[in-house]
Write a structure and sequence with these properties.
Length: 489
């Protein structure tokens, strides 16, 4: 059994607040049992009632935003401005799924009345059952207790058990209290939402025979371990994991020549946003042989100031990354570094330079995700050659980006080809922008081929995230009074 979980202030490394007790094995079993007992009641709750429940949760979080932000800042050091915006994003997600429920098209209803020798067929998507959600470290609200996985699963009609992240235990506990109270006040059945604390307890949650699916955002290593557990159960269950991504950027020649300062500033800002602790961080950038762009990158990165990372473990991973890249001379060299920040877990930006030929020989430079403000710039890389390297490695990404200046001389046909081909290796392709920042909309897809995610057809952000927790079923020749309400037409 896991010991109590102690939060720590990343600015000092010191304990903050009282530790949160781990959930004992009996508690895990009781929570999952209660959730399973709520499956049919929550599934059969009307779409309008579920939508109102999600809105009640959003209202509760908004009403306690000051308290929640203070708690999260003490455990993550992400700052009140960022965290206030993240609470708004979280409540926006909840309200988005309330709208998805009221629209109803997510159910994919298809009705084909009997005709000649063909039977009456009525198809829709039903909820899977109890969903286990693993919270992420880097988004204590939007990808945590009340984040997108929880919101979309509850919207789908699935009870949810969250495995809290050890990096922000008190924030998780308070958020869960607010979620549970809001759902109860909205008339949701008992057991529809619960939370588990502890590493071993998270494993028990995955292995519990009543758990029907798992959603995860985190490291490739941790995600693959959980994926194996899901696959090796007596009855395997779906595992929707967001794992690792280097999110390549390709800069075309005219863009490098004409927009060097703009590209360099955008790159430095994206690389260091949130101290680089974003799954959409631009980890590898391919640039042409343009000294002006390299000088601009060097200047922009040198102006950045580091900050505290989320935990000692994450900071240790950052140190290991820079030590490894720093030891790869002569084919890797330090191009630029930012100014150090304060605190024992502070990380400053480090950008390394290598050549296209070296990448051909050391493919791991394209696949190893460096969590933190660490980037690699690959020089002497024309767009087609860069694409060939990406294609040869075959690793999937959440995002791929291209910077093009069509008016300045970049070839439109080559840009069209590169944009089309990048779509085979990323769930989102960005034109003249940066990968950090993921809009929560109906059109969004936050996924991609492995190792970015385990199931690239699905998204963890946006309205389509609800599809992970639904499965189709067809009713054949059923009398109307026995059909689900959505199929009685």
């Amino acid at each position: 059994m896991t010991d109590a979980i102690q939060g720590r202030d990343p600015r000092t490394g010191q304990p903050v607040g009282d530790p949160v007790p781990a959930t004992d094995p009996k508690g895990v079993d009781e929570l999952v049992g209660a959730a399973d007992g709520a499956v049919y009641a929550w599934r059969d709750t009307g779409r309008e009632a579920r939508a109102a429940a999600l809105e009640a949760v959003a209202d509760a979080l908004d009403a306690h935003v000051t308290e929640l932000v203070a708690l999260a800042d003490s455990e993550t050091a992400l700052g009140t401005t960022r965290l206030t915006g993240e609470v708004a994003r979280t409540t926006g997600q909840l309200r988005l799924f309330a709208g998805v429920l009221r629209d109803g098209s997510y159910q994919g209803v298809v009705i084909e009345p009997a005709e000649a020798a063909r039977p009456d067929l009525r198809r829709y998507k039903r909820s899977l059952g109890v969903v286990a959600v693993f919270a992420a470290s880097n988004f204590p609200f939007a990808f945590s207790v009340a984040g997108g996985d929880t919101a979309s699963a509850l919207a789908a009609g699935c009870p949810v058990i969250v495995k809290a992240h050890e990096g922000h235990p008190r924030t998780s506990l308070r958020t869960a209290e607010l979620v549970r109270a809001a759902l109860e006040s909205a008339g949701a059945p008992q057991g529809v939402f619960g939370i588990v604390f502890g590493v071993e307890e998270g494993v028990a949650l995955v292995k519990h025979p009543l758990t029907a699916a798992v959603g995860f955002t985190g490291s490739t290593r941790g995600g693959l371990a959980l994926a194996r557990m899901c696959a090796e159960r007596p009855t395997p269950i779906p595992f929707y994991g967001e794992l690792g991504s280097v999110n390549p950027v390709i800069v075309f020649p005219a863009a490098a020549r004409n927009r060097a300062q703009e590209i360099a500033r955008g790159y430095a800002a994206s690389l260091t946003q949130g101290v680089g602790q974003f799954c959409t961080n631009p980890g590898v950038m391919f640039v042409p042989d343009d000294p002006g762009l390299l000088d601009a990158i060097r200047a922009a990165v040198s102006e950045t100031v580091g900050g505290p990372m989320l935990s000692e473990r994450i900071h240790a991973g950052y140190l290991a990354s820079v030590e490894d890249l720093g030891s790869r001379s002569p084919y890797v060299s330090l191009l630029a570094q930012g100014r150090p920040g304060e605190g024992p877990w502070s990380a400053a930006a480090r950008v390394y330079q290598t050549g296209l030929g070296a990448v051909y020989q050391h493919r791991e430079l394209l696949t190893e995700e460096h969590f933190g403000p660490v980037g690699i710039v690959v020089t002497n890389a024309d767009p087609t050659s860069a694409l060939r390297v990406i294609h040869g490695e075959g690793a999937g990404n959440l995002v791929a980006t291209m910077h093009v200046d069509l008016d300045g001389g970049d070839d439109a046909e080559e840009a069209r080809f590169v944009g089309r081909e990048l779509a085979a290796f990323a769930g989102r392709v960005v034109y003249n922008g940066w990968p950090t920042g993921v809009a929560v909309t109906h059109a969004q897809h936050h996924g991609g081929p492995y190792p970015a995610t385990t199931v690239p057809a699905y998204t963890s952000v946006g309205a389509a995230a609800i599809e992970r927790w639904l499965v189709p079923v067809v009713y054949q020749d059923f009398p109307p009074q026995l059909l689900p309400e959505e199929l009685r037409r």
